């Protein structure tokens, strides 16, 4: 009886090991996709930051051009006087 019980316990342990190995294999297959997802998220975040920076740069360039135009108008007005 003890021998049969020990064999059954070994069988149960082997089944558990097989299940754990199957789970580990599944996780191993999912790992590249998880890495891809993380890299894609980083890329999208960087792309968004780049777009924000471009918008800010364009706004600053417009402001600079407005100031240049006003300055040239003032200098031309003062030269005419």
UniProtKB/TrEMBL annotation:
Source organism of the structure: Rubus argutus (Southern blackberry)
PANTHER family attached to this UniProt entry: STRUCTURAL MAINTENANCE OF CHROMOSOMES PROTEIN 5 (PTHR45916)
Protein name per Swiss-Prot or TrEMBL: Uncharacterized protein
This protein's UniProt keywords: Coiled coil
GO biological process assignments: double-strand break repair via homologous recombination
A molecular function GO annotation: single-stranded DNA binding
GO CC terms: nucleus; Smc5-Smc6 complex
Domain of life of the source: Eukaryota
């Amino acid at each position: 009886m003890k021998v049969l019980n020990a064999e059954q316990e070994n069988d149960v342990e082997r089944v558990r090991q097989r299940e754990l190995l199957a789970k580990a294999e599944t996780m191993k297959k999912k790992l590249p996709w998880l890495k891809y997802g993380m890299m894609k998220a980083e890329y999208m975040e960087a792309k968004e930051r780049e777009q924000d920076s471009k918008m800010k740069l364009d706004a600053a360039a417009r402001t600079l051009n407005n100031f240049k135009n006003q300055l040239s108008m003032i200098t031309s007005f003062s030269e005419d006087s």
